[in-house]
Design the sequence.
């Protein structure tokens, strides 16, 4: 393998990659949850994909505005010290519960 041609992923690649992984995992479990819809199931993944891409717009804009900061630092800069720390705590607990 030629390692001279390898390129590193930047922040935007990681955001889109993780978003697509989350959507893909959600689509595997979606068919059982929406089975009562019937033949209109084909429309729901398309709508969810469009909505997921729309939610990426503010994330990309924040990454452009604060290129060297993490999500936790961005929260503290935008929301202030107290609300930023509270939002970071909620995000941490959400991630912890999702991993459990």
Sequence:
């Amino acid at each position: 393998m030629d390692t001279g041609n390898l390129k590193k992923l930047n922040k935007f690649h990681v955001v889109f990659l993780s978003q697509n992984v989350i959507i893909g995992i959600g689509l595997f479990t979606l068919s059982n949850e929406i089975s009562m819809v019937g033949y209109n199931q084909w429309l729901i993944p398309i709508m969810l994909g469009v909505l997921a891409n729309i939610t990426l717009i503010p994330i990309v804009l924040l990454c452009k505005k604060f290129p060297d900061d993490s999500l936790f630092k961005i929260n503290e800069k935008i929301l202030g010290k107290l609300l930023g720390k509270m939002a970071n705590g909620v995000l941490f607990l959400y991630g912890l519960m999702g991993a459990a």
Remarks:
- Residues 12 and 60 are 7 Å apart (CA to CA).
- The chain has four helices and no strands.
